[in-house]
Every structure is written in C-alpha cells, then in structure tokens.
Amino acid sequence: MSRLDVELIPAFSDNYIYLLRDGATGTVAVVDPGDATPVIERLERDGLPLNIILNTHHHADHIGGNAELVKRYGARLIGPAADAHRIPNLDQAVSEGDAVSVGEAKATVIETPGHTSGHITFWFGDDDALFCGDTLFSMGCGRLFEGTPAQMWQSLSKLRTLPDAAKVYCGHEYTLSNARFAAGVEPDNAEVADRLRHIEATRAAGRPTIPADLAAEKQTNPFLRADDPRLAAALNMSDAGPIEVFAEVRARKDTA
Ligand code: ZN
Ligand code: FE
Prior knowledge:
This protein has helices at 36-45, 60-63, 66-73, 149-160, 175-185, 190-204, 214-220, 229-234, 242-254, and strands at 4-11, 15-22, 28-31, 52-54, 76-80, 92-94, 99-102, 105-111, 120-124, 129-133, 136-137, 140-141, 167-170, 212-213. The chain has one domain (4-254): Ribonuclease Z/Hydroxyacylglutathione hydrolase-like (Metallo-beta-lactamase, Chain A), CATH 3.60.15. It is built from nine helices and 14 strands. The N and C termini lie far apart (43 Å). The structure holds zinc ion and fe (iii) ion.
C-alpha cells in the first residue's frame, strides 16, 4: 500500500496538470504538463525535483511542457506507445496492461482510444487514483477526434469496471457545462439535477470539481450510462443499443 499525494496545478483556461508525490520515496511526477511554467513555479516553491512525466495523449495542451521540463529536471518521459511517433523523446512507451512506477506507487496502463487513437489512462489501484486525460471527464467525455462512438464507449466501459472508490483526475475543468448538458438531456433525472446543484455551488465558491468520485460518475454521467434504459427513454431511443445511444448523446454535446 503506497501513499500517493496528488495536487492540482491549473493551466491555461481550464486544464489540470497533476503533481504526484510518492510518500515512501519522495519520487515526484507530473501528468500531462501542457505548460511548463506553472509546474516549474510549483516545484520551485518547495524545492522539489521532477523525476517522471506521464502523458495520456499527444495533444499540445497535455504535452507542451514536456521538452522544457525534461531539459530542466531530467525527468523520464512515459507515454503511449501508439503515439510514440507524435510525442517526441519518450523514454518509456507503454501499452495495455503495462506497469508504471512512481516510486513505490504503481499504475496500470489502460488503453482508452476515442478522443485520440493512442490515448491511455493511468490507474493507480492502491491509491484509487485514475488519470484519464481527455477520455472521461466529470459528467462528460472527450470529443471523438480520432475514434468512433463504438471505440469510445468501449474505452469508457473499461473505466466503468474500476472500483467506486476511484477518484477521477481528468484533463479539464469542464464539469459545470457538462452537468448542465446532462440535466438538459435528462430533465427528469433527480440524481443528475442534484449533482448539478452541487457542482454549481462548488464552482460558485471557486473550488475545483476534481477529483470526481467514479461512483458518482457511474450514477450520473450520461456517457457512462449509454446502456441505462432511463437515458435511452429520455432520448426516445428505448429500442436502440448503447453505441447508438452513446453516439446520439455525443452528437448532441458536440452541437450544444
Ligand atoms: Zn486532448
Ligand atoms: Fe485537452
């Protein structure tokens, strides 16, 4: 059992970079440093090293700080093997089921294509921490830039099998707009309405909604519930399968 400390580093307008510290060894990692500047500021404040960089996918708002951080701290760069051609200078290219260590903290790599074809998620099972980039958002999911609805539904279905205790550390603070959208899709769903109220209060107080509880996502995130008959009924799609329902919700969100 390790003790992994996770801290949010806000970047750009709505990205989160995550600072990970393994209590046992003092090993420090960051997840998806789209911008080096806020990471350097945070590390400098406590005189911390940077041992490891984890990347979930190739988008610039997730890897843009890699080069500067590697140069400055000598951090080891770990990212998806399927994206090795478009994430420069990976030291460790990982794929489904691979183990990744941050000191004594251990993650398993889960391939979650859909937002991009090479997207991966890091699951620190002993620490209940899920770093899912732009695959699963709180109350939402990433846009399908390089994947199909079937692929993304399969990726999200994999994440849905993880324990309720999992904390969701996603790439963006999109929760409020996602929750408003979800409430619009299912105006009669009391759990969704209740969660929207909580999220509105959290944001009104200037607090992050991340990490989200995976248990709450399973209950209220429409993109994790494409096989829930209540959602299908709300869309007048009771005869449709989950992939069709998923595709419909995603299409509506794309134009919302
Ligand atoms: Zn992205
Ligand atoms: Fe992003």
